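JOB MANIFEST
job_type = single_chain_structure
chain_count = 1
residues = 591
[input]
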Amino acid sequence: MAAPKKGRRPTGAQGRPGRALAIILIAMVALTAGMFLSKQTTPRLGIDLAGGTSITLKAKSEPGKENAVNETNMNTAVGIIERRVNGLGVSEAEVQTQGRDHIIVNIPKGTNEEQAREQVGTTAQLYFRPVLAYADGAPVAPEGTQSPSPSASGSGAPKAGDGKTTPSATPSSSATSQGRALSEALKAPAAPSPSPSASESKKADDKAPSPSASTPPTGDEAAAAALQAKFAALDCTDEAQRAAAGKGAKPEEPMLACGKRGNAWGKWVLGPAQVNGQDVKDAKGVIDPQRGQWIVTMQFTDKGADKFAKITGELATKQMPQNQFAIVLDGEVISDPSVSQALTGGNAEISGGFTQQSAQDLGNMLSYGALPLSFQEDSVTTVTAALGGEQLKAGLIAGAIGLLLVVIYLLVYYRGLAFVAIVSLMVSAILTYTIMALLGKGIGFALNLPAVCGAIVAIGITADSFIVYFERIRDEIREGRTLRPAVERAWPRARRTILVSDFVSFLAAAVLFIVTVGKVQGFAFTLGLTTVLDVVVVFLFTKPIMTLLARTNFFASGHPWSGLDPKRLGAKPPLRRSRRTAPAPVDAKEA
C-alpha cells in the first residue's frame, strides 16, 4: 500500500508572512532612527523651493587669445564649474550657459553656499610656481603657532620631509641670496623655462657682486630690488593687499602671493610658472592606509608629467624654501610642498598635516581648478522661494486631491481591500520620505519641483500594482475557489505583471536621468526610487498582509463589505475534484 503523499509546505510569504512583515518593519524603524540620528528630519530643498544664490559669470579672453570665448570652451567651463561646486557637496546646483559669453550658476540655500560661491568665483588658471622667498604675515592665530609645510613625493618614493616645519623668514634675513634668486628669476625668458641648475646657481653666486660693491645695479637687479621692497611692504593680513598681491601677474613673470599656512597668513615671492592646471589629469584627497594620514594624490598628463619631473628635479637640489613649489589658484597660494627628489612617472602625492576636509578641498581645487577661460562676476542675486513655494503648495494640493480620489475609488470599488491599499501607500510614503531625507544628508540630494511631481506620479504606479493583484484574486474567486487558495494562485500571475510594469517604469526613469540635465534629473531620480520601493512594498507588505487577512473570517467568508463577496463577483459553483470510480471486480465464477 502506497504511503499517502505529504502536502508541500508553502514557502516565502505564503508560509511565513510574519517574517516578510518583520523585515519591512525593521527597515522602516532603522531608516526613521537614522533620519533622527543624522538630524536631517526633512528632505533638502532645491533652489526653486528653498531659495539660494544665482551668480552670473561673464567670460573674457586672455590677451592674445581673443577667440577663446567659443562654444567648446564655454561648455568645458560649465562642466568644470559644475564638478567643482558639486564636489563640495552642493547638490542640485545648476550651471548653464546663457548667450555667447555668460554662465549662470544657481546654488540652493542650506548647502555650502558661501564656500561654493568662493569656488565659483575662483576662475583663474591654476599654476605650479617655484618658491623664491617666504615670510610670515601677521598671524591670525596667536604668535608662535606654525603649521607643518607639506611635502611632495612620487608614487612609491620615500615620503621625505614629513613633519618638517618651514623656517620662518623675514624680509631682511638672507637678503643677498633672496636678491640673487629674484635676479635669476627676472633673467628668465618670456616663455616658462626651468630654473638654473645647482652648479650654475653656485657659479652665479660666486660671481655676483656683494651688496656693498660700488658696481651700479643692472636692470634685473633693480627690478629684483623693487620686487623685494614690495615683498617687504606687503601685509597679507589686509584683504585689499591680498587681493592685489598677484593681480595682473603673467605666467612667465615672477609674482608676489599671499596664502594661509595653518591659521597664519604667509607671503611668497614666486618664480615663473612651470606647470599649469591643465597639466593635471586628476587629483583627490585619500587616506594613506600605511600611515593612516590624509594625503593628496595627483596624476599628470603626459606633457605635465615631463614638466613636473623637470621642475622637481631642479628644486630637489636647493635649500629651504627654494626647494618648494607653490600651487597658486587665482593668485593665492593654496599649498607649498617641498621636494627632496625628482618626481617622475606622472604620479605624485602631497603629504603632511592634512585633515580630511583640507585634503579633499585641495584635491578638488587641483582636479577642477583649470578653467579654459577667465571669468568675472557680472551679478549675484539672492533667489527667494516665494514662487517655488506657491507652485509647491499648488502641486501638493493637486497631489492630495488625486490621492483622495484614489482612496474614494478604492473604498467604493474594493471596500475592505481598500484598507490594504491605503496602508501599503502609507508604508511606501514613509520609506520614500525617510530615504529622501537621508539622501539629502548622505549624497546631497535636493528635492525640487520636478522631483515632487515624480513622487506624485508614483502614487498611481503604486496603486496600479495593488489593483493588478486584487483583480487576479477576484478572478480566482470567480472561478469558484475559496479565498486562501485564490490569494496564493493569483500571486504568481500578478507578480509577473507587476515586475514587468515596474521594470519598464524604472528603465524609462534611468534613461531620462542619463540623457537629461538639471531639474529633470530630479524627476527621473524620484520616479526611479519610488518604482523600486513599489516592488519592495508589494513583495514584503501587500502580499503578506493579504495572506494573513485570508485567514480571517471577515474576508474568508466573503463578507459583502470585504470586497471579495463571491455572489457579487458572479462566482461559479465551488470547484470539486471528480473522482474516477474503479471498475467493479469481475467474479471468477461469472467469468
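[summary]
The radius of gyration is 36 Å.
Residues 4-13, 139-148, 155-176, 188-215 have pLDDT under 50 and may be disordered.
exit_status = 0
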